[in-house]
Design brief:
One of its GO terms (biological process) is ATP biosynthetic process. Keywords: Hydrolase. 28% of the residues lie in helices and 31% in strands. By secondary structure, it is an alpha/beta fold.
Amino acid sequence: MAPTAVRVVDMSAEVEQIDTSVAPVVQAAGTLPWRVHKGELQVELIHRPRYRDWSWPKGKLDKAESRPVAAVRETAEETGRPVVLGVPLTGLQYLLADGTVKRAHYWAAQRAGADVPAVAARFPVPPVDPNEIDDRKWMTPEKALAKLSRPSDRLPLETLLDAHRTGTLATRPLIIVRHGKAVDRSRWSGDEATRPLTPFGSGQASALVQLLACYGVQQIVTSPWQRCVSTVEPFAAASGIPLTPLDNITERAHEQTAKSAFDATTALIEGNVGAVLCTHRPVLPTVFDALRQFARAHARRALPRSTPYLQPGACLVAQIADTSAGPRIVTVEKFKPQVW
């Protein structure tokens, strides 16, 4: 169904809630796959025979599926290749003729190489259905602008080109995770370091696996306290990435000196691989203070400044670009996978 109106959506900010009793919302997600081939930037388009159009790989979210997971899954289903997500791009909101709102979320994405173990944690996807996608082509952005069937699909490409021009398209992720829901302190008589997750918290840990697998993560750093280890252990087991316990980001170490957590976060920002850092709510202000030191203005404004900073089981994805001034955080997104 063709849209009757299109609105640009800033995916770096919270999108306003729509009364779904008046305007039902269909959420969709996809990517703009990109590469540098023989020194030239290229993007990948797909052709849908049913609609006879050229567009970006995208599709509707499955039940309880997060937007990044849907984007990665749909791209694999429609291009036949796994990708890892980079910076979020301009999204689109369509008002369809039947009154339904369709909101499409996009990310820049690159093919996942053999050096990205996180891909092993993903659910398998079926091969490309030729009845759905019968052609896909890499081309220059200039050719893509001309070939795209819908003018509105040029908007996320323009965002991608802006990032390329400013040297902020190639990024690596640093994902900050707050451990899942733990047994209440008042109900736990053992050592604080051994306080475990609740059954719901364990469900949050399982729900995080597919989200963390969307990114080019190669390192998992965690507080060695049980509730943090249990939160990222399912992803570590599914991806094969070993856990790196770090005493500096426990609550106890943070009470003694916040500098150790600040320095640990800084080291990950300045590192050269994508990473996950799992810690506790009292440590998060220091972690975000470290991120602020490297963040561009718009990303700095998106960093949480007040308690609880992140909900239990939620995460913040910071994309880091290597610039002439050093590593810079160029985008920030928050996600909380659903448990059902």
